[in-house]
Design a protein that fits this description.
Blueprint lengths: L21 H30 L1 H34 L5 H24 L1 H8 L4 H26 L3 H24 L5
Helix pairs in contact: 1-2, 1-6, 2-3, 2-5, 3-5, 4-5, 5-6
Length: 186
């Protein structure tokens, strides 16, 4: 005990606060997870199991590759901005440098997919060139999303980070439902 009689040890009943941003990021992850599940349910319902296979391949390619290409941007931007914030420096120089690099990386990845598109379309997407085009669009979309998440985390804007994560899933399922309702088939 200290001089004023308060216990220096924490008791089990004391509330230990969660780290800043845990709740909004958790909600964003929950929305993204539920939307992913709904995407598969709606997609399979709309197209049938056999016709949904190219979309499953697209999903796999997107979520196996996009984080590998773009998560390093998110992590490095978050780290650099947090460091500058701790020093009381602005983050604009970091953002100005990383935007062209992110655009360049997205262009290179898109060019590689385009170069491999005959093989990808035939062997991976069961002949559906539109699914190959969707893979390019996915990479073009995930580049700024990872950049935005890095900016949000590096500047301590975890509510915004959670919104970016949640909107990713919500947008995906909204698009899926819209395509189903207007009768689009692969």
């Amino acid at each position: 005990m200290n001089n004023n009689g308060a216990s220096e040890k924490r008791t089990l009943d004391e509330k230990i606060p969660l780290p800043e941003g845990t709740i909004p990021v958790g909600i964003g992850l929950l929305v993204a997870g539920v939307a992913s599940y709904a995407f598969f349910k709606v997609g399979q319902q709309a197209l049938g199991q056999e016709n949904f296979k190219p979309i499953v391949a697209l999903w796999f390619a997107t979520f196996a590759l996009a984080p590998g290409f773009f998560m390093p941007i998110e992590q490095e931007v978050g780290r650099a901005l947090a460091h500058r914030r701790a020093l009381g420096q602005g983050g604009l120089p970091i953002v100005r440098k990383i935007i062209p690099l992110t655009i360049g990386l997205a262009a290179i990845v898109s060019a590689l997919v385009l170069a491999g598109s005959p093989w990808l379309t035939k062997d991976f997407f069961e002949g559906h060139w539109l699914v190959t085009a969707a893979l390019i669009l996915a990479f073009v979309g995930y580049a700024p999303a990872h950049l935005a998440r890095g900016i949000c985390s590096g500047t301590g804007k975890f509510v915004d980070y959670g919104i970016v994560m949640g909107m990713d899933g919500a947008t995906r399922i909204a698009g899926c439902i819209a395509l189903w309702l207007i009768g689009v088939k692969v």
